[in-house]
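Quick start: what a row looks like.
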Amino acid sequence: MPMSRKPTAPRAGTDPTTRPAATSSAGVVFAGLVLGLVLGGLAGCAIDPAKDAARVLADVPAAELSQARALQDQGEPAKAAETYLELAETASSPAKEQLELNAAEALLAAGDLKEANRVLNAIPASKLTATQRELVLLLEAELALQRGRASEAIAKLQQVNKGSLPADLKISYLGTEAAAYRLDNQPMRAAESLNELDRVLKNDPGARLDNQVSLLFTLAMLGQNGLKEAVRSSGGRMKGWSELAALFSRYGAPSPKLDAQYRKWRSAHIGHPALANLPDGYFTTLAGGYAAGTDVLVKLPRSGAFGSAVKVIRDGIQAAYDADRSGNRPDLDFAGGSYDAGVDGGADLVIGPLLKSSVRALASRSSLPVPTLALNRVGGGFTENLYQFSLAPEDEGFNIANYASSAGFKSAILVYPRGAETSSRITDAFAAQWRTLGGKIAARKAYPPGDRRYNRTAAALLAAGKADFIFMVAFGKDPLALYPSLREAGARMPVIATSHVYDGDFNPNRDMALSGLYFVDIPWILDNQRSDALSRKALRDKLPNVNGPLARLYAMGIDGYRLAPRIAQMGKNPGTFFPGETGGLTVDSLGQIRRQLLLAQFTGSGPEVRNRMQAAADKADVDDEASDTEDESDPDASDTDAKP
């Protein structure tokens, strides 16, 4: 069954994890494979020939079955699921279970995770064929991944008999496994899955190149220090991939010097599978990857309250355009006018709009005529060709929950400023994801921002409960007083904060007070070793406010330019990974861009990227079974789902 989005012809070099048309990439719903596997059989499994192949759905009314497939072809997966479930009501096993699996797959494509989970849970395990049991595990893994439960997805995949899978499904399996390990902050394990995938793709040079590019992007999540350690500690093919990831990430753009070093490396590693054109694929993907003659409408407000933000985003887009050396730079149209007028005028792609009211207007439509990368997020249902990209504060709370879970933490203490909308959005998102991952909130405390009596706040917080870590939300100068107060009050567990604690310019005299504090941030801010045309170091002399409060919007503009030509392909393959300046970027089944941020820690010489948070020095002081308590004096203290 095809994916819910309209097929878009892939452009060479535009998608680091493009797969052959019949398959899906990292983290996707297994489109076309649920039915295809039944019709083709599962090699290596003892399947009864009587229930095999075309006989499985032979008794299902052909017209209704064709209608369900057509609905998915037309981008109506929810309606397709309804049809499959109606057919299942009168079908017999194993057709009944197969139709229910088809419905669950369609519901995942529609983003209805709750209903997909209900359908999967309702299928009796005793009725499943050997093939269908494997498919249930794969769909359950995909469901867990879309819910942000990386460890659960990994556990489901480990139950699959991987050796029995046919090549097409093994491609999807390994891609999903890589996505799950990435989400679990295990880039080396993710790269190992992609290394295995490289073997499966040996007869498809195009897909293999895309996968090798994705493998290097995944390893780059380790940072230069992590890559040095990977080169030292790994062996065989993975040692070679780590060396290449370190080499490519140092340059950031193609150069004769890099080409010479790569040729020398390949000569010294004759048995390594790295393709001769790997540098071209890698840097074409980073540059933009536009098709020749592409017209792009950049839909940004020309005046109004957001003028400063608009200018920074526009400067980021322009900087990415200027740095694009692919030979196929698009025509950028920054002119005013309506969305529809711009599209009618021949735009192939749209970057924008920025204002939420404008994004809502587009989201209210069932489909858009061309791929459109909105620079804000309003949530809602599925709109064909609409993709929503923002630097939402909810992303930070979500990422902090994931980092804490991957470190093995089970209980958290929350401290946050009272009455701040941004704080509520962050803590709501954290609480929702933290509980999804099985975590508990041992205590929480709201403090008056700027009050300066942080020693009282810290003492009250630590007296309220014990936990594995503290999540501190603080803005402005508050972190410089609150974090030391927590330490002085005896907090021995790790403390983590959002990007608001770092302005991008390390000041030893000021920031030494934050030594030891973890925080999440975007790669563009944290990578100080880069010197390519789009690095902060290179742009510092050209653009104002590179270290100011709007600095991260430059990175958003850069990513907007680079995402636009590949966003439709990524939308067909939710979970496809792109190493953006604003984070590791994927697209879910509703067209929402998800960002995986980096974890960093303040040290005496500045922030350093970390792979994981370290537990408290004295684990005996940590109570993993702390019961939930709240500061009853705070009217906003109740845990709720993340706000849209």
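That is the whole record. The first strand starts at residue 295 and ends at 298. The mean pLDDT is 84.
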